[in-house]
Amino acid sequence: MSNRVTERLTKSERSLAELRGTVAGESSGIADMNSASPTHEEIAERAYQIFLERGAEDGHDLEDWYRAEAELTSKACAATV
Q1: Beta-carbon contacts of residue 61 (< 8 Å; ≥ 6 apart)
Q2: How confident is the model at residue 1 (pLDDT cuts 50, 70, 90)?
Q3: Which residues, 6 or more positions from 67, have their beta carbon under 8 angstroms from its beta carbon?
Q4: pLDDT tens track for 22-35
Q5: Long-range contact list for 45-53, CB < 8 A, 24+ apart?
Q6: How far is the C-alpha of 72 from the C-alpha of 81, rounded, in Å?
Q7: Closest Cα partner for 71 from 52, 32, 43?
Q8: Residue pLDDT, tens place only, 47-64
Q9: How many CB atoms lie within 10 A of CB 68?
Q10: How far is CA 56 from CA 20, 40, 43, 44, 69, in A?
Q11: Residue 19 pLDDT greater than 70, yes or no
């Protein structure tokens, strides 16, 4: 391989290692943000509660989902501060 290809591979490998570190939470606090994110199940449960509170009226599924996600995310973020 040429030196340019080897140099590019080395840069790519370093970038990949940095990304892996970021995903593992070793830098930039991304792991902290992910821990504040509600799970799919938590959002689904809250969206269903909202649906029932509305009187089980159909046609608002996305609205309920987004509202549930926003509520749970804001609670989780407030708890981490």
Answers
A1: 47, 51
A2: very low
A3: 47, 50
A4: 444 444 444 445 56
A5: 46/71, 46/72
A6: 15
A7: 43
A8: 999 999 999 999 999 999
A9: 21
A10: 44, 21, 17, 15, 19
A11: no
At 42, list the tokens: 């938590």
- Alpha carbon of residue 79 to chain centroid: 16
Residue 17: its H or E element = helix 3-23
pLDDT in tens, 66-76: 999 999 999 88
16 residue type, one letter: L
Contacts of residue 18, Cβ cutoff 8 Å, sequence gap at least 6: 27
Is residue 17 within 8 A of residue 43, CB to CB? The reply is: no
In angstroms, rounded to a whole number, what is the distance separating the alpha carbons of residues 3 and 17?
21
- Cβ-Cβ contacts under 8 Å for 65 (sequence gap 6 or more): 43, 44, 47
